[in-house]
Amino acid sequence: MVKGNKIGKGSTAEVFSIAHDKVAKVFYEHIPVSQIKHEMNISTKISSLGLNIPAVHGEGDIEGKKAIIYEKIDGFPLTKLLEKGLLSAIRSVNTMVSLQIYIHSKEAGDFPPLKFSLENRIKRAESLSGREKERVIDYLQTLPDGKQVCHGDYHPDNILISMHGKFVIDWADSAAGSPLADLARSLLILQYGGFPEKVTNRMYFAERLKRRMIAQYYLYLYKKYSPFKRESFQQWLLPVAAGRLSEKLPPKEIEELLSFVRRQLNSWD
Predict the structure, then answer these.
(1) Cα–Cα distance for residue pair 72/32, rounded to 1 Å
(2) How far apart are CA 24 and CA 67, in angstroms?
(3) 153 near 170, Cβ under 8 Å?
(4) Distances (CA, A) of 22 to 17, 60, 193
(5) What keyword terms does UniProt attach to this protein (predicted)?
(6) What is the pLDDT at residue 102?
(7) Could you give the CA distance from residue 70 to residue 267 in angstroms, rounded to a whole number?
(8) What is the pLDDT of residue 3?
(9) Phi, psi dihedral angles at 77 (to 5 degrees)
(10) Which residues have CB under 8 Å from 183's CB, separation 6+?
């Protein structure tokens, strides 16, 4: 099978259009085969739950590299609407919240446990000291396990808007766990994710304020339509923020998350 036009790129793979109705997610050579098979199995399970995701057409070999073949969705990421203006941003947040609540209404069955994958992320967080990791992991073990479907990386870039509906993509990190853990990750990404590396202080603080307002509105809407105790949500912010530090993030985001984690830990002393 031959690559077509590249239409996307991520931390584990590149995405190519290979037909009018199919794309290939071509994994980098260092990605283990077991991880690729896990993603395909998870995507198949998610599809069986009735969630609106691109259909999985199986595995492939693209110029010597392992790939998963997916249905091609002609659309654009929700991020474009979120950045368009205030009214568009409000509508986008409503769309995102309703989709996430629907995902969380599904029981995960034999999906991998969220707390296990989160613990492994925390262990890989190079910004944290060994003692800091130990304290966060000990705290994580006291939190509820949960059994609902959690996307694991739910943010506007992973929601595609097309004339045929709204599709949620990139389920590689999905797990069985507490919806509030999944919500915590979404809120942290909305508030801190993807800050440009070179901005003036004025632009940075303006963007920071905008992000904070969007995140707070998101939390308000989710709580309105799927009520929970605020402290039950807040308890997930520390371990989820610590786990996110294992990822390749812009310096500003690392700075914000690290500051948040250390403030939380210091408040225990």
Answers:
(1) 24
(2) 6
(3) yes
(4) 6, 12, 30
(5) Transferase
(6) 96
(7) 46
(8) 66
(9) -70, 150
(10) 100, 219, 222, 233, 236
Residue 66, token pair as written in the block: 């392992």
What tens digit of pLDDT does each residue of 75-84 get?
999 999 988 8
And the tokens for 155? 């943010």
Q: How many residues does the chain have?
A: 269
Element (H, E) at 141: none
Torsions phi, psi for 224 (to 5 deg): -65, -45
Amino acid at 233: F
Backbone angles phi, psi at 161, to 5 degrees: -105, 120
Tokens at 12, concatenated:
């584990």
Q: Rounded to the nearest 5°, which phi and psi values hold at 196?
A: -60, 145
For 141-161, give one letter per residue: b (16+ CB within 10 A) or e: eebeebebbbbbbbbbbbbbb
Sole residue written with tokens 């399970």:
45
CA Rg, the chain, in Å? 19
Q: Which tokens belong to 97?
A: 């919240």
| Amino acid of residue 22 | K
Residue 109 burial by CB count (10 A; 0-12/13-18/19+): exposed, middle or buried? exposed
Task: Yes or no: say if 146 and 181 are a contact pair by the CB < 8 Å rule.
Answer: yes
Distance between CA atoms of residues 71 and 56, nearest Å: 6
Q: What separation, in Å, do the N-terminal and C-terminal C-alpha atoms of the chain show? A: 58
Which domains can be identified in the chain, with CATH numbers? 5-71 (3.30.200.20), 75-266 (3.90.1200.10)
204-216 pLDDT, tens digit per residue, is 888 888 889 999 9
- Give 13's Cβ-side CA count (13 Å radius): 22
| Per-residue pLDDT reduced to its tens digit, 83-125 | 888 889 899 999 999 999 999 999 998 899 999 999 999 999 9
Q: For residue 204, what are its two tokens?
A: 């940075």
